Amino acid sequence: MNNKESLFVFRLCCIALVVTSMTFAIRAGILGQLGNEFGLTGTELGWVNAMAFLGFPLATMIGGAIYNAIGAKKLVTLAFFCHLLGLLLTIYAGGFWGLLISTFLIGFANGSVEAGCNPLIAEMYPDNKTTMLNRFHVWFPGGIVIGALASNAMTSLGFNWQWQVALILIPTFCYGALLLKSQFPEFDRQFHSTASNLRHLFSPLYLFLVVCMTFTATTELGTQQWIERILSASGASPMLMLAMITGLMAVGRAFAGPIVHQFSPTGVLLGSAILAASGIFLMSQAQGYFVYIAAILFALGVTYFWPTMLGCVAEYTPKTGALGMSIIGGAGMFAVSMWNPVIGHWIDDARAQAQVANLSPTETDFVAGQAVLQNLFIFPCVLIVAFIGLYLFINKSKKQQYAKSA
To answer: What confidence tens digit (pLDDT) does each residue in 255-298 have?
Structure first.
């Protein structure tokens, strides 16, 4: 496969990821409208959110298992049809159950994109895996910027949530059209064995990375998905803040190569955890314009989490193959799906406690938001300890390998 064909497929994957990220951003922007229109509580909205994160790991686990047999193109095609059906069913949803089903389909589509595209990109660029995965994942925050700004503008102009969801159909049809004329690379099946991948999933290092992924994903996506409800009374615009956070993430991932080469993937992860913890802590204390400063720190922290975790799997446990990359992505999203109702319950509980204190609605929302952020602060703190251990372990392993080869 020549460079021109590889670039065409890479761009197709990026547009599919834009669709994935726009579903995250616009869902975060319309949660309040959904709650008001259908009379949903924070906990019920948490279950709706959870379906997106539950469908994702199911798709990645299935996709990872069948990737070697059917190839990336069929997985991305499956993603297209699930995106299309899920978006249409969301637009015509009549209540809680309709939103649950449609959101699950969108989550399944998002997982199929990851299951097909991540191992494909790692194989297309074997000498530059972590850097190219970061460049691919530029379009996750990039798509969130597009979705957040569009949601904010459309809400201001009086467009209802159905029109905001319909907007996502545009890039969906774009990558669907590209699929019709794309030629995906063919890899030697002799070196792509799902059974072999499965055996290597049980290495201690891989299992450790999976556990870490559940914390990195919740730190990043658990915070972003609820940013409208958490920060609505802080004095800052939640959707503009989401756009700023993800805009910084997109720029950071675009220039990930020199940073990864300078500090190594494990060093990048450790620094990211420290910055993310600092950002969430400051957001839980600040209000007004200071919230934006705290959000910048948070953005710098979560920028490299997802693609660098995938890069660690590709570089440090390469024999886990496509299945390993799919499983770890699925584990991250599954963790977020489990924490979403909990976060929704934290909001309901904090609001109830604040109302007992006879606070105004604005003060109630502000106190509840700060309480939730203080709970989320625990996740990056755990990661700091975990990534110190990972950094020391990888450095020790490299020294031992160097000593043996000397």
So the answer is: 888 888 888 899 999 999 999 999 999 888 877 778 888 889 99
CA separation for the pair 263, 327 (Å, rounded): 26
* Closest by CA position to 100, among listed 60, 49, 56: 49
pLDDT at site 106: 95
Of 55-64, 111-120, 219-228, 240-249, give the lowest mean pLDDT range.
Answer: 219-228
| Number of Cβ atoms within 10 Å of the Cβ of 41 | 14
Determine the Cα–Cα distance for residues 300 and 305; give it in Å rounded to an integer: 10
Burial class (CB in 10 A: 0-12, 13-18, 19+), 69: exposed
Alpha carbons 355 and 298: distance in angstroms, whole number? 29
Specify the pLDDT at position 4: 78
Q: Right CATH number for 3-183+191-405 from 3.90.180.10, 1.20.1250.20, 3.40.980.10, 3.40.50.2300?
A: 1.20.1250.20
User: How many alpha carbons lie under 13 Å from residue 117 in its C-beta half-sphere?
Assistant: 36
